[in-house]
């Protein structure tokens, strides 16, 4: 970090160090590697002794002795934060993300490394809170010449959500991904929020009153839940994430069968909770199915970990990422499932609020969530199938969405 002073104002310029190698030979290697190879070959052929080869090729005797006998041939400098195999796995992840249409920025890559180190239990003293700096990123790019940095062309969100070409390109990619994938092997996942507020309702009051009020305890707190549905109409067990530092047994009782529970400080899904959902909910479902699988969702790069990519490779799972701001057109959960389900949630929450005081306790949330799912009942399968059909996924029919989105 450098500081530029202009008058009374100090401007901090944050940038990686521009290291310049000092001219001249390295103090611990003042010989030509080519001559070292020739000296080793001569000694191993038996034409020269180590002492004679050392004098003839100007190689230190101890150095030549170590190389001839393969003793203590260690690399110079401190060991890298990631081993070669680990870096190769990271490169593979980056290439897959770019292929999916969501290339990562410098910070995204460094964040993935931070999550990997944290999960592995490693503490890298050269990194701040295990987050690599820009120096590491610069060296990482230099070690992998098959990667390069380019400016990404941005598409305005207001256009990306409605552009015919964006949707058409999405379906062209989806067609390839759906090849030989049965409907049961297609999953759509999405994270949604359950607020501690049943919302506004219409009531009868005296004419002339500007504002109508009713007494009911509400709060701004909310709970995140990951839902997943399959192309043949099945609902996977929900995955609940509370906003808390600790998870208590009472928060996991009385819920929907096989539901999973977790917690984060923010109350939203992060890389660790998404990976846990993928491993404990999505993978067990896929492992009981034959043939290729497909999973459709958004915001994947913010949740992506190296382990998720590896599991996808092992289990023949393909990912399709939705274009930005297109979930109201292309995501089955948003199109046909969440609306009636949230209506059921608000109705059940309102009944509970009328009988109880205070905010909704976490010990009660699993029970109300279960009641909301069961209240949808037999319509659940029909809504799921209708969602996949309306999004043109199962059966595959892009015209269903393209006609809504207008012609080019």
Characterize the largest beta sheet: strand count, sense, and whether it forms a barrel. 6 strands, mixed
Mean pLDDT: 84
Which of globular, elongated, flat, extended, rod-shaped describes the shape?
elongated
- Give the spatial strand order of the biggest sheet: 6-5-4-3-7-8
Distance between the termini: 50 Å
- CA-based gyration radius: 29 Å
Overall helicity: 40-55%
Overall number of strands: 8
Category by helix and strand content: alpha/beta
In DSSP terms, counting alpha (H) and pi (I) runs of 4 or more, how many helices?
15
Strand content: 5-15%
Order of helices and strands: EEHHHHHHHHEEEEHEHEHHHHH
What are the segments in which pLDDT stays under 50 over at least 5 consecutive residues? 1-13, 155-161
Domain DDE-1: 222-357
Subcellular location: Nucleus
Domain HTH psq-type: 36-70
GO molecular function, one term: DNA binding
Attribute tags:
single chain; disordered N terminus; RNaseH_sf; 15 helices; 8 strands; DDE_SF_endonuclease_dom; two-stranded antiparallel ribbon; elongated; alpha/beta; six-stranded mixed β-sheet; Transposase; 12% strand; 408 residues
Task: Outline the structure in words.
The structure is a single chain. The two termini are 50 Å apart. The protein is of the alpha/beta class. Helices cover 43% and strands 12% of the residues. The model is unreliable at 1-13 and 155-161 (pLDDT under 50). It has helices spanning 33-45, 50-57, 61-69, 84-100, 106-120, 134-143, 157-160, 164-177, 271-287, 306-314, 327-330, 332-355, 365-376, 379-390, 399-405, and strands at 2-6, 9-13, 186-195, 222-230, 239-243, 260-264, 293-297, 317-321. It is elongated. The protein is built from 15 helices and eight strands. The strands form two sheets. The protein has a six-stranded mixed sheet with strand order 6-5-4-3-7-8, sandwiched between helices. It has a two-stranded antiparallel ribbon with strand order 1-2. Strand 1 (2-6) and strand 2 (9-13) form a beta hairpin. Helix 12 runs antiparallel to helix 14. The longest helix is centred in the last third of the chain and has 24 residues, at 332-355.
């Amino acid at each position: 970090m450098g500081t530029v002073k202009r008058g009374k104002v100090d401007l901090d310029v944050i940038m990686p160090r521009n290291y310049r190698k000092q001219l001249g030979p390295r103090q611990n290697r003042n010989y030509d590697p080519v001559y070292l190879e020739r000296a080793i070959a001569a000694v191993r052929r038996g034409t020269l002794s180590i002492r004679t080869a050392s004098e003839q090729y100007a190689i230190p005797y101890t150095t030549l002795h170590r190389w001839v006998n393969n003793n203590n041939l260690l690399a110079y400098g401190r060991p890298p934060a990631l081993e070669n195999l680990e870096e190769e796995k990271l490169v593979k992840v980056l290439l897959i993300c770019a292929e999916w249409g969501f290339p990562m920025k410098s910070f995204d890559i460094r964040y993935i490394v931070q999550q990997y180190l944290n999960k592995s239990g490693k503490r890298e003293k050269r990194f701040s809170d295990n987050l690599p700096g820009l120096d590491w990123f610069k060296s990482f790019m230099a070690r992998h010449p098959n990667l390069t940095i380019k400016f990404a062309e941005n598409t305005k969100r207001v256009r990306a959500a409605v552009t015919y070409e964006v949707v058409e390109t999405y379906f062209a990619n989806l067609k390839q991904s759906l090849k030989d994938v049965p409907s049961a092997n297609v999953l759509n996942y999405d994270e949604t929020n359950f607020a501690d507020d049943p919302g506004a309702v219409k009531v009868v009051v005296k004419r002339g009153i500007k504002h109508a009020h009713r007494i009911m305890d509400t709060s701004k707190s909310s709970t995140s839940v990951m839902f997943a549905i399959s192309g043949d109409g099945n609902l996977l067990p929900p995955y609940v994430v509370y906003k808390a530092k600790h998870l208590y047994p009472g928060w996991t009782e009385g819920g929907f069968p096989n539901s999973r529970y977790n917690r984060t400080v923010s109350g939203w899904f992060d890389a660790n909770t998404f990976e846990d959902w993928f491993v404990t909910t999505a993978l067990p479902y896929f492992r009981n199915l034959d043939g290729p699988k497909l999973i459709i969702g958004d915001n994947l790069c913010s949740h992506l970990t190296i382990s998720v990519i590896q599991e996808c490779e092992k289990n023949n799972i393909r990912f399709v990422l939705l274009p930005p701001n297109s979930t109201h057109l292309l995501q089955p959960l948003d199109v046909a499932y969440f609306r009636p389900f949230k209506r059921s949630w608000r109705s059940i929450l309102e009944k509970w609020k009328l009988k109880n005081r205070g905010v909704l306790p976490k010990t009660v949330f699993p029970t109300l969530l279960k009641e909301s799912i069961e209240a949808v009942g037999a319509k659940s399968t029909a809504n799921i199938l209708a969602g996949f059909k309306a999004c043109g996924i199962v059966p595959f029919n892009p015209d269903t969405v393209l006609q809504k989105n207008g012609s080019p």
